[in-house]
UniProtKB/TrEMBL annotation, chains A, B:
Pfam families: Esterase. This is S-formylglutathione hydrolase. Serine hydrolase involved in the detoxification of formaldehyde. One of its GO terms (biological process) is formaldehyde catabolic process. Keywords: Hydrolase, Serine esterase. One of its GO terms (cellular component) is cytosol. The gene is fghA. It comes from Sphingomonas sabuli. Belongs to the esterase D family. SUPFAM superfamilies: alpha/beta-Hydrolases.
Amino acid sequence: MKVVAENRAHGGRQLVVEHQSSATGTPMRFAIFLPPQAEGGGKLPVVWYLSGLTCTHANVTEKGEYRAACAEHGLILVAPDTSPRGDGVPNDEAYDFGQGAGFYVDATEAPWAEHFRMWTYVTEELPALVAAEYPADMERQAITGHSMGGHGALTVALRHPNRFRSVSAFAPIVAPGQVPWGEKALGGYLGGDRAAWRRHDAVALIEDGARVGELLVDVGTADDFLDTELKPELLERACAEAGIALTLRRQPGYDHSYYFISTFMADHLRWHAERLAR
Amino acid sequence: MKVVAENRAHGGRQLVVEHQSSATGTPMRFAIFLPPQAEGGGKLPVVWYLSGLTCTHANVTEKGEYRAACAEHGLILVAPDTSPRGDGVPNDEAYDFGQGAGFYVDATEAPWAEHFRMWTYVTEELPALVAAEYPADMERQAITGHSMGGHGALTVALRHPNRFRSVSAFAPIVAPGQVPWGEKALGGYLGGDRAAWRRHDAVALIEDGARVGELLVDVGTADDFLDTELKPELLERACAEAGIALTLRRQPGYDHSYYFISTFMADHLRWHAERLAR
C-alpha cells in the first residue's frame, strides 16, 4: 500500500492510495479524506462515495466539495475507482463499458470475469483495508454515489441491510435492468440471463424483498439522462409499495454534472452525519 | 460573446464565456458565477479571481469551492484566463512563460507585445464587458488571486486604489523583481530595464508609494515555492514600513495546490463580503 498523493485540506488530510487488489488482480487507487478529528486518536464514521461512468477517484476528490462538510462533521470519506485499469485489463471503446465502467458487479462473462470484480472490491476488500489502516469506525458507515455509483450505493446497501446507517444517491441509475446503460453493462458482464441481473438492480432488489429504512435521492430536472437512464419514478414506485421512506428531490434546473453533485454534497453529508451520530 | 458552458450550481449559474478580445487580439474565455441573488434584478458585488501559472479559468471553477460562499453572500465571481492562447499566439515550452503565464502585464518585447496584453485585459476590457453584460455593481469590487494571480491581484489593486473595497491573495508572488519566476517573466515581457518592472511588483509599488488600506494574505508553510518564489516576508516588511494593515497567515502544513486554496476560499469570500457590504 502506497500513498501516491497527500495534501492538507480543510484541516485534515486528503490521500490518494494505491494498493495491489486481490479482487481485481490489478493495482487499484482510492481517495480517502481524513478530517481533522482523525488526529484525536478515536475512530470516526466513514462515508463511501461510489463514482459514475468515466470517473476515477479523482473526479469527486477535485470537484465534489465534500471536505468542508466532512471536517465539520468529523467524517472520513472514501472514494474508490470505478473499475480495474491498465494494459493487461480488457477494455471497450465505449465510455459506458469496460474500464471506467465497472458497474459494481463481479463479472461472470469472458473476457471481463478475471479483473472486473468491483462488487467484491467495494464490499469486501476495500472495507477491510480501510478498517485495518485508518481510524474508521465500521459500526458507523454510510454510503452514497453518483449515477452508476448511485446504482452501486443502492445495491450495496440493499444487500447489506445492517452495514450502513444511511444511504443516499445523486442521480442514480435505479433500475439498470430496464435502461440502456444497465442492459449493456449487466448483459456484458453477467450474460444474458436477466434473473442474474436482479441482484444488481435496486428496484428489482426491493421488489424481491430487500429493504433499507430510508433513502435520500437527489436528481436534477435538467439532467439529460433523467428520462432514459435514471428513471427515478421506478424507485419511487418500488419504495412506495415496499414501505421504504424515500426522500426524492427533483432539483430544478440541475444537470448530471459535478456542479449538481457539489451543490448538494454538504446537504447529503449533514444528513448522513445526523444518522451516523445516533 | 458566446456562452460556451452553463451549469446550475448552488442555486445560481456558472457560466463560461468566450469573446473576441481587443486587448489580446484573440478569443478569450472567462468563467463567471452568478449567485441566486442575481435573479432579483439588482446589482451585486463582484469578486475578481486571478489564476496562477499553467491555469485557465477552469482550475478555480472546478476546484476552488467558491460557489457556496458566493451564493451565501450574494457575490458574483469572475475568473479570467491567464494569457492569450491559440496557434497564432507565441509560446514557450516552459510552464512559467508564454501561454498560461501572462503575468498580468502588457508586454513590450517581441514577439510577446502583440498578444500578451493581460494588464489591459483584466483592468479595462474585461471589467467593461462584465459591467455591460451582467448585474455587477462596479462600485463594489474586490480582487483576489493565487500565486501569479496573487501578484496580479496585488498589483492591480495597488495601481487602482479607489476601485476595490478589498484585496486578498493566496500564496502570492509579492516581489517578482526579486525571484526567479518574476525575473524571467518580467524580463521576457518587459525587457531588461528593471525600472519598468517596478509597476508590476507589489513590494516595489508599496516602496514607491502605492497604498491600499488593508490586505489579507494566506500562505502554506509546506508550499514548495514559499522561500524561493513567494517570499511573503518581503510583503510583510514593505507593509510594516508603509503602514498597510496586512493580515498574513502562515497556514501550517498547506501546500501550493487548490487543496490549500479551497480550504481558505470561503474565509476570504466572507472577509470580502463584509467589506463589500459596507
